[in-house]
Specification:
Strand 6 and strand 7 form a beta hairpin. It is built from 3 helices and 7 strands, in the order H-H-E-E-E-E-E-E-E-H. By secondary structure, it is of the alpha+beta class.
Length: 155
Amino acid sequence: MKMKHMLLLAALCAVTSSITAHAAEPKKAAAAEAPKTAAKKGEPKAKQDTYPLYGKVVTITSRTLTIVRSDAAEAEQSKYAINASTEYVDGEKTATIEDVKVGSWVGGSVKKGEGDGNDVVLKLNIGVKQKSAKKASKAPKKKTAAKSESKKKAE
């Protein structure tokens, strides 16, 4: 009987020391037990106030930037506001509004306009290359001589 009491006492001590050690680190325990705030399916995503910009410059003035998103003749033009806080870059180097040329491809980020206002360009990168057009159809694969010979033999 004493053996059982000793084992029970040892187990109780181990549990108590574990609880004490766990209570000494409340930050880790809270972080481990905190539920993740990732969006679940069915929940609406938080609205972002910025979005990426990519297109070909049609016109640029000290107040506006007009771009098209493709070289197609029917491509729709998009107009954005430019202000004193707009940042101009050429890759990693700084640039100016004078460096932006009509017909060049640009990228960057835009902040959504409040109310009926135009969206405002936050950052404009003039060192952007045009994205390559996706191939409409793949070229047929060439048959090797060995495959065509084996096909003839089978017939």
